[in-house]
Every structure is written in structure tokens, then in C-alpha cells.
């Protein structure tokens, strides 16, 4: 329902217009009828009408002054100006405030209704355009994701579609995070949130692919700031979820160049991952050698090895060891110790259980050694020895 306000110092005109128009037939309602500009202004402040039908000359505040004040405060308010003969100079000035509808006194019902229909039609068109714009803004983030995804995956996207949905920056960069492992895929939503929090207004959009999480960000010239933020994302991912995604930053270019930027970043990511895998494999071999050498050491544990021999974070080493071997560090140590005990028992029957426990890192605790031995082999050390001495 469109609200209409009448302002005219002639009561007969005011009452005539008020009564002759069937306001509801236009989807409108009359919210007030006043005889001077000051009262009209106060009522406008209170009611916020969509349309004001006003005389040019009124006591207190004239129609032009009223239009000027209201247009400054409520620019969407529409005016239909009532003018007397010879007042066209005033009407001309009113045009500078966007007034396009004028009625020459005396005016009949059809003149007023035609003007009302025209103004309401304009308002409806504006509202429709605003709604379209609002709807577009609401779905724009989803459209950006879809366009970026289709660009990267090789779909045919027209250049104007790219510029229409990515009008903000001339140049962008892509950040790729690996989501290939089970752990990474499980935490991809967490990673996306962390990256969004740290990158903040740099982010244009992000999209999940099969083996990567891709962020399109504004190119900021020097890569150091972005690289620092990427390091922060990796660090927070580890602090909160104990995983460190591999990441790579592309060069810069327009959004239409996203396929090239993506391949550039993916190539860097592949190289980094290959190097990291090579380094981790060498580190795991070093850990396996260390276990063989230190099996008799009762202090041997992941924490001890990390701090005293490898000088690295024990949590990171434990995760890496499990990824590479499929076993926990402590379980692997136990397996090596028991297998060494079995080998010694097969070589000689003279060695005592106490000596085995001491030589294989169980200290002066043969009872605990026997429990672990049985859990691993299904036999106590004595049963195993008899079984070796008297095979069936």
C-alpha cells in the first residue's frame, strides 16, 4: 500500500482531492491532508509517505522549500506539484529536485488519477529493479563459486560472464590447499573457515574441488603478505586440528586467466608435495634406524627421540610416522623389541627372561616384559621357548 500525503492551503481543494479519489483502487492510502508546508514536513517525518501532492505556494513553508528539504532527507519520496497559472518558473526550479509531475489548478479527477498511476508505476518499477538487484547480490557469491569452478575445470565461460560477476579486481591470485588425504578431506570445511578468517577482505570467492580447496584473492603486489597469511592458515590448522595442508600461491592475472593460474599453482603444489614426501620418507627411515639402534634403551619413546635425537615436534613426528608406516611409534617399538627377543631366544636357550627384559628396553621388569610378549605372540616367554625346543 503506497502512502500519499496532501498539502494545499486552500481547504476546498484539499477536501475535493481527498474525497474524489478512490485511493485504494490504486493500492494507495491517504495518510494526511494539511494546509501548510510546516505541518506537511512534520507529517512526512512521521508517516514517511511514498507520494506527496503539494501546492507550490503555502504559508509557513512553500512547496519548493518542502521539496528541497524532503528530497535531501528522503530522496525516494515522489512529488506531484499543484501549480497555479503563471507559476511555471517555480515548477521549472522544482525539476532540479527531480519533480516530473505537475498539475495545473483547477485540476479534475482524471488529471490526478493519471499522475498517481504514473508515479505508482515508476515506484513499482524501481522496487522491481531493487528486488532484482537484491536477489542478484544474494546469489552472487554462489555464482562466483560456480564461474570459478567451471573456469578451472575447463567449461566454456564467456568473458563477459567473468567480468560481470568478478567486477571488483582487475588482477587476482589463486591459493591452492591440498585436500587429498583422508584427514584433509575430513577437515576441508574447517580449513575453509580458517582461511576465510585470516584472508578476510582479500577473498573474492573460494571453491572446493576433488583434491584441492581454491581461494581466489585480490592480488596485493608483494607476495610476502599473502605468504605470511598462508603460513598463518597452516599453523592454525595444525594448532586446532593437528594437520598441515600443503599450499601454493599462483601468479596474478584477470579472472578469465584462472585456468592458467590454477595450473601454475597446482604445479608448484605438486613440486612442494613431492619434495615434502621425499623429505618425510628420509625422516621415517631415520626413525626406523633409530628404533633398531635404541631398542635396548628404556628411555626410547616418541617424545625422547623427537627432543634428544631428531630435534623436532613430537606430535608432528608421530603423525608422520603413522602416515608412512600405518603404525603408532610406540606399537612399532614394541614390535621391534619382541621380534628381537624372539630372535635371541631362537639363538640360545641359556638367556634368562630377566636378561631379555633388560636387553630389550623393559628395564628391571621381567613381569611386564612377559605380559607384552604374550600379548604380541600369544605365548609367555617360557611357552614360546618350549615350543621352539619341541616343535610339532
Automatic annotation (TrEMBL):
Gene3D superfamilies the record matches: 3.40.50.2300, Homeodomain-like
Domain of life (superkingdom): Bacteria
Domain HTH araC/xylS-type intervals: 285-387
Location of 4-aspartylphosphate modifications: 55
Gene Ontology annotations of biological process type: phosphorelay signal transduction system
InterPro entries for this protein: CheY-like_superfamily (IPR011006), Homeodomain-like_sf (IPR009057), HptR (IPR051552), HTH_AraC (IPR018060), Sig_transdc_resp-reg_receiver (IPR001789)
Ranges of residues in domain Response regulatory: 3-120
UniProt protein name: DNA-binding response regulator
Amino acid at each position: 500500500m503506497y502512502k500519499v500525503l496532501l498539502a494545499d492551503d486552500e481547504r476546498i481543494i484539499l477536501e475535493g482531492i481527498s474525497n474524489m479519489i478512490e485511493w485504494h483502487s490504486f493500492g494507495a492510502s491517504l495518510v494526511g491532508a494539511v494546509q501548510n508546508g510546516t505541518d506537511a514536513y512534520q507529517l512526512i517525518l512521521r508517516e514517511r509517505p511514498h507520494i506527496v501532492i503539494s501546492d507550490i505556494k503555502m504559508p509557513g513553508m512553500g512547496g519548493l522549500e518542502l521539496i528541497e528539504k524532503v528530497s535531501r532527507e528522503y530522496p525516494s519520496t515522489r512529488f506531484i506539484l499543484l501549480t497555479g497559472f503563471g507559476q511555471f518558473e517555480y515548477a521549472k526550479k522544482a525539476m532540479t529536485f527531480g519533480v516530473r509531475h505537475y498539475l495545473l489548478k483547477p485540476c479534475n479527477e482524471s488529471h490526478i488519477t493519471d499522475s498517481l498511476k504514473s508515479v505508482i508505476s515508476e515506484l513499482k518499477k524501481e522496487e522491481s529493479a531493487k528486488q532484482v538487484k537484491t536477489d542478484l547480490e544474494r546469489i552472487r557469491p554462489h555464482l562466483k563459486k560456480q564461474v570459478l569452478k567451471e573456469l578451472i575445470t575447463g567449461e566454456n565461460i564467456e568473458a563477459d560472464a567473468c567480468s560481470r560477476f568478478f567486477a571488483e579486481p582487475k588482477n587476482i591470485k589463486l591459493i591452492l590447499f591440498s585436500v587429498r588425504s583422508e584427514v584433509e578431506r575430513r577437515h576441508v570445511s574447517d580449513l575453509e573457515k580458517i582461511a576465510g578468517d585470516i584472508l578476510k577482505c582479500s577473498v573474492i570467492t573460494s571453491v572446493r574441488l576433488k583434491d584441492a580447496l581454491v581461494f581466489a584473492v585480490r592480488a596485493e603486489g608483494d607476495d610476502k603478505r599473502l605468504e605470511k597469511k598462508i603460513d598463518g592458515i597452516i599453523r592454525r590448522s595444525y594448532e586446532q586440528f593437528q594437520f598441515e595442508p600443503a599450499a601454493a600461491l599462483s601468479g596474478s592475472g584477470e579472472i578469465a586467466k584462472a585456468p592458467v593460474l590454477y595450473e601454475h599453482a597446482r604445479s608448484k603444489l605438486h613440486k612442494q608435495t613431492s619434495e615434502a614426501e621425499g623429505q618425510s620418507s628420509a625422516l621415517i627411515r631415520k626413525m626406523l634406524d633409530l628404533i633398531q639402534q635404541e631398542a635396548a634403551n628404556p628411555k626410547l619413546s616418541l617424545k625422547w627421540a623427537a627432543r634428544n635425537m631428531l630435534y623436532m615436534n613430537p606430535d608432528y613426528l608421530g603423525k608422520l610416522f603413522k602416515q608412512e608406516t600405518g603404525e603408532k611409534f610406540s606399537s612399532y617399538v614394541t614390535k621391534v623389541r619382541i621380534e628381537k627377543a624372539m630372535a635371541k631366544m631362537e639363538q640360545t636357550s641359556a638367556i634368562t627372561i630377566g636378561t631379555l627384559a633388560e636387553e630389550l628396553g623393559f628395564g628391571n621388569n621381567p613381569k611386564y616384559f612377559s605380559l607384552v610378549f604374550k600379548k604380541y605372540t600369544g605365548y609367555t616367554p617360557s611357552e614360546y621357548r618350549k615350543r621352539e625346543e619341541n616343535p610339532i
